[in-house]
Amino acid sequence: xxxxxxxxxPVQLVIDDVGWREGWDASADGGPFRAGVDxxxxxxxxxxxxxxxxxxxxxxxCAMVLCEWDRxxxxxxxxxxxxxxxxxxxxxxxxxxxxxTVAVIRENGxxxxxxxxxxxxxxxxxxxRTRAEWLGAGADDRWPPDVLAGxxxxxxxxxxxxxxxxxxxxxxxxxxxxxxxxxxxxxxDDAESTGACMARQGVRYASTxxxxxxxxxxxxLAEDGGFDHDLFVLDRGxxxxxxxxxxxxxxxSTPNSxxxxxxxxxxxxxxxxxxxxxxxxxxxxxxLRDNPEVMLARTMPETVSQWFHWRFTTLRxxxxxxxxxxxxxxxxxxxxGLILPLVVKHAAAATIRSADCxxxxxxxxxxxxxxxxxxxxGRAGTFRLGPEPAAGRLSEPGTCDLLGMARYGSxxxxxxxxxxxxxxxxxxxxxxxxSLAGSGARLDQMETVGNEVRIxxxxxPVHGSESELVVIGGHQ
Length: 476
Ligand SMILES: [Zn+2]
Hints:
- This protein is an alpha+beta fold.
- 17% of the residues lie in helices and 34% in strands.
- The chain contains seven helices and 30 strands.
- Strands 2, 3, 4, 14 and 15 form a five-stranded parallel β-sheet that branches. Strands 7-9-13-12-11 form a five-stranded mixed β-sheet, with helices on both faces. Strands 1-18-21-20 form a four-stranded antiparallel β-sheet.
- The model has no long low-confidence stretch (mean pLDDT 95).
- The structure holds zinc ion.
- Zinc ion binds at residues 16-17, 117, 121, 180.
- The site of zinc ion has 5 residues, from strand 2.
């Protein structure tokens, strides 16, 4: 045994209302509230998110509002998405900032998650604004399903216009969602609940303050997580920061698995000074890691998987070994593919060895070590924590999702989801060969330096690309 080992609570940063070009509030005239700041928002404000993600080795989630990215006045086809309705004309807002912004998103897929918030954030009929885009005031104040489907279609068209539609003909919505104005209808028996509507559109994860949800019928799995149809919804609580305040961090450590804020909180009035706000946020988030029971999750799929492990997996230290038991994880979470290998947190110098668990990766963040592992039978396993140097393994997974592992004789295949450009590292015993299989991600570069193999992979910046890293020899 070598000190503490935990199944930590994941924390994911979620930033709302990213996407507005004009920051100012137009609500007094019936328009949108927007970001509530009196300046234009542009490439430097997206770069701030990427810079924060890179500093911490995470993928902060941007809940996007896309109407002001509209290059072809597509929103006019969905008149309830904007104040202007069918007369919507976005031409005056277009400019070099938009191509530059899209480039920031595409080049930083490893450190920015592009998520769904809405098209125009509210619902308008004949110039009359009602909060909000996906639901009105409650269960009896809802928008017709075809109107909601139209908003989703509009969002997809805006993604496609901007080169974020991915390969092939069909553009998928992002997998993560934040309901506008936190208006959310939760009813497991209602096919028009917000969760049912979003799950039908391919959305998998949502986060919102439960205090703002309209709960009709909901069987929560725990006080801060549950399913609404096939959508998994996490409680984000309340960070206590006004949405329009520049450069502000919460007064206390976030107690939830979601740290939810708004875009200006991470910015400065002068965008050339954004770095100061980013540094403040990097310090705040890094400080959450001082708690041995907390981790900054690298991605949203890791957040959700780890939430299940944190809530339902038991880790006990018994007769010189750590014992893991996953039997209490709800079957629906497995069925929906939400469960990834669990992440345990331990001393940075300690390494994990196991006879009955697959060890996918071990990496360091701050003063801590993290190891992703999964019992081979999917239910229970044991491991030892010791000072011995690790056998060959992935020692830096970047912000790739670690999906699983298969063994074939002396080779292993690590299944990864690669977002954007990722620099990953294999270290320890040098493998006989290392290659990428599958048509998902692209192997851009590979070099061996000492006992490290440094690999650069490129995948889709929004949805990620799934591939297998095939390692022959050198793995224990
Ligand atoms: Zn919002």
